[in-house]
Every structure is written in structure tokens, then in C-alpha cells.
Design goal:
Helix content is about 40%, strand content about 20%. The chain is an alpha+beta fold. The chain folds into 2 domains: about 1-135 and about 145-175 and about 285-425, 3-Layer(aba) Sandwich (Rossmann fold), CATH 3.40.50; about 435-575. Helix 1 packs across helix 6, helix 11 (about 190-200) crosses helix 12 and helix 12 packs across helix 14 (about 260-270). The structure holds adenosine monophosphate.
Length: about 575
């Protein structure tokens, strides 16, 4: 967006947030008047469009409820069973716990909203950091994921892949970004990443912002750079791309811009060749004004490490959105990454909120059944209260639970601002994959079956995500007991390695895809000595948990609790290969 445009957009944001209640009613009216005749809504509204009837009759649903309709459309039935506007394709979300990625319909209106949204979230950033589009280029790490063709002929792709495919994006790419399109669509993400870093380094004097969609990818880029900087410098010095990059698109793109540049290579080598990589980003890209990537939610775990590498450069989480709906923007890009709030845009969808309660174990539970709980409208949420987000969109989602829990941190004009609290029922997540307690328990059940015939029993387990090295990986703590006086030291290490493999094979599709692409590293089982889980319980009880109410956490979040288990580890085992 040009500078003269951003002030206009900020004005629009003022108007939207001031008239949030009225706009929400209009959005719902429009959705209902267009879609009341669809097979889905007819069953609840009988052709009526009143808000009160909608609130009374239309059920609050999850993806599973809408899936039969979406599957029918994907299999060739007409889309008006669910929505009136013709559909142009599907967005593939990053994954549901326990299954395949979700598919949600995309229409011309959805695409228009996505375009509008970019202006909305970029305007506050431009206001604070100047017009980056005029100042230089963005080094943004971007990776398209493979599309799926449904039997109807309609394509399903992740929201970001759909954006990379648009002709508008392809037109602005060479002027605004350092990465050529071939590196974004490169089928091997390591080849793509190497080349994107190479192009970013070659153009380092032009780079004004660095980023990716999520913090985990930026960190992955830095770690990759740590392992490959000498080779990258050699390529820059000689003007030749390394031989192991065999992707022809990447090689063509490189041949167009690479020429020997020994001075630049020496400069980069000197910077990278220092003992500490603290502040390396600033040194490598001295004109960078900020790092743009989502650092909230599950990405919080990466903030400290990113701050180490970018020393003082602001980390900007610009927006909150999902495949199902566009939700909010960060009006204070300079705010500390831990404190980011997103102001909801009332024109993007009809938003409702299901109150949830903080229980004493700091986890969030539903108060009552959804049917008994009244949903709260956007403008009526209460500061300090946590809610689960429910959306109704122009693309066939009606009272749909996104699965995110948010807390109201305040209001901007009449629009509430939310902090992201957690993904409901998700306990492990390295990147965008979501693994629930049920997913984990299923995988553990499959793996521990290997122990039983050998006379060993898995008595306790818990988990955590280890991000101390990149990419992060799942860690399982297992306490194993031998039957008939056997000691777990007698257990053949090969069996434990097999247990790691079996767990990975039993995890969901998205996990396996990410493992294959090295977005997640090998799963690890740490066997702890007898009594470790008793020590864990003692710790929680010492912190005030009632002994009678103690529930072993299925995922360890506290540093101290982690230390208790880690100090009792007697064996570490890793999955030897990717599960796909
Ligand atoms: P997807 O379904 O693949 O589009 O992923 C969307 C999910 O990513 C959301 O439902 C959130 O759980 C998470 N997400 C997206 N934006 C943010 C954000 N700004 N902060 C925290 N989590 C986010």
C-alpha cells in the first residue's frame, strides 16, 4: 500500500471500530439474506433471516458438523447446499487435531476480504515504521504447500499458498520481496530456504524488513543460516549456486542474478564468523526496521530466542486470522511481543463469543455445555473475560467454533481487543500442527504395545515441546516398570527406538507431513527412573494443588516441573526416520 493510502485506511479502521455493533448486525443480515435458502440454513431458519431466530435455532458447531456438506461440494455437488455465492476453491487449514487438514470454502468475497485485510494490518505498521514498500525490500521466508485437487475439480490449498498463486502477488513480488517465486514454490523446502537466504543476503543492503508468517519459520531460517553461512558465502563469492540445489526453478532464478561478489562475501563471512550470534540479524541486514512474524499463541515459545538474534529490532505480530475467518489486527506494532492484542474488524465476519472459565489448574474449561451457554456479541464482551471464538462467515460457516480461546484486553473505540490465550484441546505444537491429548494418547497406546510382550509396562507418561534446537521436536517422558523383577535397564534400546517410530507413525497427517519436510525434528522418548512421576506430583502439591484433585499434566509447561523429570532421565531415544 502506498503511503498516501495508509492514512485513508487508518481512517476506515476508526470508522469500523466506532460503529462495530451496527456493522456486525449488517454483516449478519447480509449473510442470512443471501444464504437463508441454502439446504443447511433452511433446516434451522425455514427461510427466515431474523437475528433472534438465528441465535435461537442455528446450532454452534465444529468442523465435524459441516464436513459432510463440504465433502459433498468437494465431490461435485453444487455449493448452494451450504452457501449461495459460487465457490472458487477451498482453503486447507494447517490441521485439525486427530485428522486431515480442514477444508473451508473460498469465494470471490473471501478473496476480496483477504486483499482488504492486507491493507488493514499493514497500515498501522507503515504508520510506525514508514513506508517499507518504498524504502526497500522484504526478506520474507515463504513456502507454498502442495495443492490438492478435489473430485469436483476445485483446488484446495493453504491460504498462504493461494496468495502466492495470485497474479497480483506475482506482479509485486520482484519489486517488494527478495525471494523469487521459484524459491517459494520449490518442492524441497530446504532448497527453497537455502535460496531465499541466499537472495536475502545478496540484496542485504536493500532489505528493510525480515519475516515470515510465524516466528517458528524465522527461527528455522536463522538456524539454517548458522549451519550454512560458509557455503552461502562461497556461493556469493563465486557467483555459483551450490551443486546440491538441484531444483531447476531455483537454479534458473539464481543464474539471472548471481555474479561473483567477493567483497560482499567477505563482509558476510566476517559478521557470521563471530563467537556469539547475538544481534546477528541487525548486523547482516543493517537497514531492517523490524521482524514481522506472529509471535503470539503457540509462537510465544520462540520470542526469547528471536530477541537474542535480533537484539532490539522490534518483533511485530501484525494480525490474527485463520483459514476460516479474518479476525483482527495489531494497532500497536511497537508493543512488546508478549503483550500483543488484536483489535477485531467488525466487517470481516459475524463474531460471537462463548464464555470460558479459568479453572484453578490454569487450564481453561467450558463452564457448561455449549447449548446451555449464551453466546456474547462482539461489542458485548467483558474486559478480562476469556471466550472461545465462534464465527459466521460469507463462505458457509455458521456459528462455527474456530477452536481458539481469547481474552478481552480492552477496547479500541467500540471494538474489543483480544489477547490470544490458547488453542483449545491442543497440547503439543511445534509449528502450525495441532496435537491434542487424544492424538497423543492414541500414539502412546500404539507404541507401548511393543513393550507388553517383553514384560515391561508403561506406567506413566507426559510430554513437552523442546524448542531448544531448531526445528523443535516432541519429547515424551516415559516411566517404565519391568514385570517379575525385571529392571527397565534390561530393555533393548532398539525397542525404544521402535517405540519412537511407532508413535510418529500413529500421529496425525499434518505431523507426518511436517516431519517429512523437517519442520519438526525426530520425536524423542526420555525414559525416567522409577518414582519420577511421584516426584512430579509432590512438586505440584507443594505448589498448592490439592492431592485429591491432582491430575498429571499431559504436557509440561513449567520449567521447574521439567527440571524434575529431566534430572531423572536414564535413557534418551529418537525416532530414526520420518514416518512418511
Ligand atoms: P490455519 O487454520 O492454518 O489458518 O491456522 C489458524 C490458526 O493459527 C488460528 O486458529 C490460531 O490458532 C493460529 N493463529 C493465527 N494467527 C494467530 C495469532 N496472531 N496469534 C496466535 N495464533 C494465531
Amino acid at each position: 500500500m502506498a503511503t498516501n493510502g495508509y492514512e485513508g485506511v487508518l481512517k476506515m479502521i476508526e470508522e469500523l471500530t466506532t460503529n462495530a455493533g451496527q456493522i456486525q448486525d449488517e454483516v449478519l443480515r447480509e449473510i442470512l439474506s443471501r444464504n437463508a435458502g441454502t439446504e443447511y440454513l433452511r433446516g434451522f431458519l425455514h427461510g427466515q433471516t431474523e437475528k433472534q431466530l438465528f441465535k435461537k435455532n442455528v446450532p454452534i458447531v465444529t468442523y465435524e458438523h459441516l464436513k459432510p456438506y463440504i465433502d459433498r461440494i468437494a465431490n461435485g455437488e453444487t455449493s448452494d447446499i451450504l452457501l449461495a455465492e459460487p465457490i472458487t476453491g477451498f482453503f486447507l487449514s494447517s490441521g485439525t487435531s486427530g485428522g486431515q487438514p480442514k477444508m473451508t470454502p473460498v469465494t470471490a468475497q473471501v478473496t476480496k476480504n483477504c486483499e482488504l485485510f492486507r491493507g488493514f494490518y499493514e497500515s498501522p505498521v507503515i504508520k510506525h515504521f514508514g513506508d517499507i514498500n518504498q524504502a526497500g525490500k522484504r526478506m520474507e521466508l515463504m513456502f507454498a504447500r502442495p495443492e490438492i485437487e478435489t473430485p469436483s475439480g476445485l483446488k484446495a490449498a493453504s491460504a498462504s499458498t493461494s496468495i502466492y498463486k495470485e497474479s497480483k502477488f506475482r506482479t509485486i513480488l520482484p519489486k517488494l520481496y527478495t525471494s523469487p517465486i521459484e524459491t517459494i514454490f520449490c518442492p524441497d523446502p530446504n532448497h527453497g530456504l537455502y535460496c531465499q537466504l541466499l537472495f536475502g543476503l545478496i540484496q542485504r543492503d536493500e532489505v528493510v524488513t525480515i519475516g515470515s508468517l510465524f516466528a517458528s519459520t524465522v527461527l528455522r531460517g536463522i538456524k539454517f543460516l548458522e549451519n550454512h553461512w560458509q557455503e552461502l558465502c562461497y556461493d556469493i563469492k563465486t557467483g555459483q549456486l551450490s551443486d546440491w540445489i538441484t531444483d531447476s526453478g531455483c537454479r534458473n532464478a539464481a543464474s539471472l542474478v548471481m555474479k561473483p561478489n567477493p567483497e560482499q562475501a567477505d563482509l558476510i563471512e566476517n559478521i557470521c564468523n563471530c563467537k556469539s550470534w547475538e544481534g546477528i540479524i541487525r548486523k547482516l541486514w543493517p537497514k531492517a526496521r523490524y521482524i514481522g512474524c506472529i509471535c503470539t499463541g503457540v509462537m510465544r515459545q520462540y520470542i526469547a530466542e528471536l530477541e537474542f538474534y535480533c537484539r532490539g529490532l522490534p518483533l511485530v505480530s501484525a494480525f490474527y486470522a485463520c483459514s476460516e475467518a479474518i479476525c483482527g489486527i495489531n494497532l500497536e506494532p511497537l508493543c512488546k511481543p508478549y503483550d500483543v492484542s488484536y483489535t477485531f474488524l467488525p466487517n470481516m465476519a459475524y463474531f460471537e463469543f462463548l464464555p470460558v472459565e479459568n479453572d484453578h489448574d490454569e487450564s481453561i474449561d467450558m463452564k457448561k455445555n455449549d447449548e446451555d451457554t449464551e453466546l456474547v456479541d462482539l461489542v458485548n464482551v467483558k474486559a478480562g473475560q476469556c471466550y472461545e471464538l465462534v464465527v459466521t462467515t460469507c463462505a458457509g460457516l455458521y456459528r462455527y467454533k474456530v477452536g481458539d480461546v481469547l481474552m478481552v484486553s480492552g477496547f479500541y473505540n467500540n471494538a474489543p481487543q483480544f489477547q490470544f490465550v490458547e488453542r483449545k484441546n491442543v497440547i503439543l505444537s511445534v509449528d502450525q500442527e495441532k496435537t491434542s491429548e487424544t492424538d497423543l494418547s492414541k500414539a502412546v497406546t500404539e507404541a507401548k504395545a511393543l513393550l507388553d510382550p517383553l514384560g515391561f509396562i508403561l506406567t506413566e507418561y507426559t510430554s513437552y515441546v523442546d524448542t531448544s534446537s531448531a526445528p523443535g521436536h516432541y519429547v515424551l517422558f516415559w516411566e517404565i516398570k519391568g514385570k517379575e523383577g525385571k529392571h527397565c535397564k534390561e530393555l533393548d534400546p532398539k525397542i525404544m527406538v521402535e517405540c519412537c517410530s511407532r508413535m510418529e507413525e500413529s500421529l496425525h497427517y499434518t505431523y507426518k507431513i511436517y516431519r517429512k519436510r523437517n519442520i519438526i525434528a525426530a520425536l524423542e522418548i526420555r525414559v525416567v527412573k522409577q518414582g519420577s512421576f511421584v516426584a512430579l506430583m509432590d512438586y505440584y502439591v507443594s505448589k498448592g494443588t490439592s492431592l485429591s484433585q491432582y491430575k498429571k499434566p499431559s504436557c509440561i509447561k513449567s520449567e521447574e516441573a521439567l527440571k524434575i523429570l529431566d534430572s531423572r532421565v536414564i535413557g534418551k531415544y529418537f525416532s530414526p526416520k520420518s514416518p512418511l
